[in-house]
Amino acid sequence: MTWVQYVGLLVFSIVAYAAFLLLFENKIIFHPSRYPEGFWDPASVGVPAQDIYFTAEDGVKLHGWFLPAKNAVATLLWFHGNAGNLSHRLDNIQRLAPLNLNIFIFDYRGYGRSEGEPDEQGIYMDSQAAYNKVLTMDGVSIESLFLFGRSLGGICAVETAVNNPARGLILESVFTSASDMSRKVFPLIPLGWALRSRLDAVGKVPHLQLPKLFLHGTQDEIVPYDLGRKLFDHAGEPKTFYDIEGAGHNDTYILGGRGYFNALNRFITETLKNSNNKR
């Protein structure tokens, strides 16, 4: 094969793969588990979740769980990560109980009991609908509402924070953009230009003035640690970064142990205290 033929084959391969990405992009990016996959009896493990149904702006019916805490200090609006559905976060929810938080976790379209098929604009609409819904719950107010996004959910949390007030933003194991992630997955083939999905958090965080906590496992095998640091570096103040030593992508709250939960609690407590002092 001559070098001209080799270059031609390489160009053809890149264009063909780009076309494949465009055709199946949403299937490649999103990995939902639909009902009945998962565990749907949270009460049996001591989690008294309330089933909440609500509707996105385009009419898609969505599902979430609301877990009220007695005399809650704040509310966590939880934007979960890419794979599975909300029921796969039960263990994590249980471990958060000592923080005494209301929790509203929901499924994006196509996940769990939520209808539809996921795409970038769709999950943003779902996130806005969840924000609107949580503010109607008893004991929930903007003054004590924290947006908590993990991995892909962090992209949704950032988008929600850009368009709505909240007391604080917590981003765990979050990447910068779809383009940056594509360079990490395919370092030798530039494919970011072919993606319709931007999933751009790094372009939005500089404009967010609310308090921000970033957490990332130092051994994250899915979202590289350096992308978490890059996102933090581009964010505006006030901001804090917490290293979860030795943690990968899905075991942060397990390997992080007491230090991890203390970091969450400290951020929430200090943010609430500082906001009260300014009144």
Q: What can you see in these coordinates?
A:
- By secondary structure, this protein is an alpha/beta fold.
- It has one domain (3-277): 3-Layer(aba) Sandwich (Rossmann fold), CATH 3.40.50.
- Helices cover 37% and strands 17% of the residues.
- The chain is built from eight helices and eight strands, in the order H-E-E-E-H-E-H-E-H-E-H-E-H-E-H-H.
- The chain has helices at 3-29, 90-95, 120-134, 152-163, 178-185, 225-234, 252-255, 257-277; strands at 50-55, 61-67, 74-79, 101-106, 145-150, 168-172, 212-217, 239-244.
- Strands 1-2-4-3-5-6-7-8 form an eight-stranded mixed β-sheet, with helices on both faces.
- Strand 1 (50-55) and strand 2 form a beta hairpin.
- Helix 3 crosses helix 4.
- It is globular and about 75 Å long.
- The N and C termini lie far apart (74 Å).
- The mean pLDDT is 90.
Protein structure class: alpha/beta
CA-atom Rg in angstroms: 20 Å
* Poorly predicted parts: none
CATH topology category name: Rossmann fold
CATH class: Alpha Beta
Summarize the amount of helix as a percent range: 25-40%
Number of domains: 1
Largest sheet: 8 strands, mixed
Mean pLDDT: 90
Main sheet strand line-up: 1-2-4-3-5-6-7-8
